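The protein record quoted in full:

***
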Amino acid sequence: MKEPKRAGDSPIAVNLEEGKRYSWCSCGLSGNQPFCDGKHKETGFKSLPFIAEKTEAKYFCACKQTKNPPFCDGSHTKK
């Protein structure tokens, strides 16, 4: 798999909890978007783990083309 699967055409809003660990899906195959469920195995992609710095709502990339992973940068509007 050379390119990630586009998992959506708009960002996914998530309410993050400060100090909680999350793992963003970078391959687009997860059934638990925007988070990883392990379906990337043998694709060459890896999940992107991170810890929320504060409790807040953030918009996660679903098109998998962001230049600011795991967050949306508007790349979904550029096809």
Q: What stands out?
A: The chain has a mean pLDDT of 95. DSSP finds no helices and four strands in the chain. Residues 1-72 form one domain.
